[in-house]
Amino acid sequence: MKYKKALLPPEPYYSGRVTRYPDRKVPFEAGLRWHVSYEIAYVKKGKVRLNKLDCEIILNEGDVYVLNSQEVHSYDDISDDTQVIMLNIIPKAIAPYVDDPHIVPKFKQPQGEALEFIRETMNTLYGFEEYKSKLISMKVRAVMYSVAYYLIRDCIDNNIEYVHGSQADDFDCAKSAIRYMHDNYKHEITLGEIANYVGMTPAHFSKYFKEKTEETFSRYLRRVRLEHAIDDLRNKKITVRQAAIENGFPNVNSLILSCKSEYGRTPAELKNYSEKN
Question: What does the record list as coiled-coil region(s) (predicted)?
Answer without folding.
Answer: none
